[in-house]
């Protein structure tokens, strides 16, 4: 099967409409300074943060500790509406829900909320589209529209937390426990907004949601400079590297950023991250039939990882309509696992959720664009 050439996009296209600033775009100190700049006491910012992060309250009329005549004005200034739900689709008896969001400029992004027996995870988008150009990825083939602001990313998470608290998933009210940056976009290509969002997630109330860093995963296709910067942050979130093949020759085509940073450099950066944070990292590997699922590649991957503190997540490819890429045969998947385990490498085959609801990232947004054009 031939692999098409792709063009990488590293620079963000010009953004025509400026994203309104939101409480979630600022650090706690900056929030207080913004409030003062609006002629408000600094403590008003802390009050609003409490309502936003702790109470998940999106109706300012419930902010009883703020004078009634000020609530809407303060809300408009500090928590402007950044995302609007276009539609939701569900599967797995309602335990998986994909939400399509329209941003203030009409841009579409997606998030996926998944309830398991022991946790609830939301998969969020950090960019509209993606500039990394991986040919088997629906988002990558759509190209990059723009980066999301920290407010736009955080709003996806807070909306998911609110849905959990309101009992919108089967099983009744529950607390959102896990966040994965594995939706649309390359998180480390939107570094500052993603790091601000990480603080919004893990900072204790009232400054953030107070979710453990151990429950947050940031995925990257291997932007070594971004991994190095994240290492210095010392946030101890889980790093996930989308490797997809252990050999540079194939990876140059499957993950075109490999033309800038080779596998050896990517793994060295991940090792440094693990050493600094003490957090085992993940290797994401989409199994693609007759492309990267050969036993010799599993053997090479096992030899690469056997002495590293890494865990392999094998992902049966969620094919996109009209694509020649498809998931591996079950027997090839089983052999791939067997070889890795023979090297003592921890490996999990990821639960494939969302196939019935355009599960691969970018599909729902693409379908909505076709529907409305």
From TrEMBL:
GO terms for biological process: rRNA base methylation; tRNA methylation. Residues 116-356 form the Radical SAM core domain. The keyword Secreted does not apply. One of its GO terms (cellular component) is cytoplasm. Keywords: 4Fe-4S, Cytoplasm, Iron, Iron-sulfur, Metal-binding, Methyltransferase, rRNA processing, S-adenosyl-L-methionine, Transferase. Its cofactor is [4Fe-4S] cluster. GO terms for molecular function: 4 iron, 4 sulfur cluster binding; metal ion binding; RNA methyltransferase activity. SUPFAM superfamilies: Radical SAM enzymes (SSF102114). It is found in: Cytoplasm. This is Unannotated protein. It comes from freshwater metagenome.
């Amino acid at each position: 099967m031939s692999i098409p050439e792709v063009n990488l996009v590293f620079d963000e296209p010009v953004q025509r409409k400026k994203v309104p600033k939101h409480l979630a775009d600022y650090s706690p100190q900056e929030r207080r300074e913004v409030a003062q700049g609006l002629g408000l006491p600094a403590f008003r910012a802390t009050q609003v943060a409490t309502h936003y992060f702790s109470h998940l309250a999106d109706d300012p009329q419930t902010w009883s500790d703020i004078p009634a005549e000020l609530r809407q004005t303060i809300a408009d200034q500090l928590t402007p509406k950044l995302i609007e739900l276009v539609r939701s689709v569900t599967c797995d008896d309602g335990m998986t829900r994909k939400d399509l969001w329209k941003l203030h400029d009409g841009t579409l992004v997606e998030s996926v909320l998944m309830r398991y027996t022991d946790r609830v995870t939301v998969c969020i988008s950090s960019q509209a589209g993606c500039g990394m150009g991986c040919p088997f990825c629906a988002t990558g083939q759509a190209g990059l529209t723009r980066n999301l602001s920290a407010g736009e990313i955080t709003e996806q998470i807070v909306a998911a937390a609110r849905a959990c608290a309101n009992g919108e998933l089967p099983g009744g009210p529950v607390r959102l426990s896990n966040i994965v940056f594995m939706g649309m976009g390359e998180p480390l290509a939107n570094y500052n907004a993603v790091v601000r969002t990480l603080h919004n997630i893990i900072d204790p109330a009232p400054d953030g949601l107070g979710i453990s860093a151990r429950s947050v995963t940031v995925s990257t296709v291997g932007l070594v400079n971004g991994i190095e910067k994240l290492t210095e942050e010392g946030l101890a979130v889980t790093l996930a590297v989308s490797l997809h093949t252990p050999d540079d020759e194939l990876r140059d085509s499957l993950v075109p950023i490999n033309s800038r940073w080779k596998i050896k450099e990517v793994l060295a950066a991940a090792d440094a991250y693990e050493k600094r944070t003490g957090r085992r990292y993940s290797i994401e590997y989409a199994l693609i039939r007759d492309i990267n699922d050969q036993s010799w590649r599993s053997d090479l991957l096992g030899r690469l990882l056997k002495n590293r503190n890494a865990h392999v997540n094998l992902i049966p490819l969620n094919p996109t309509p009209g694509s020649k890429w498809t998931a591996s045969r079950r027997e090839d998947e089983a052999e791939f696992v067997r070889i890795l385990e023979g090297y003592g490498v921890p490996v999990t085959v990821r639960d494939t959720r969302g196939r019935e609801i355009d599960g691969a990232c970018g599909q729902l947004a693409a379908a909505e664009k076709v529907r409305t054009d």
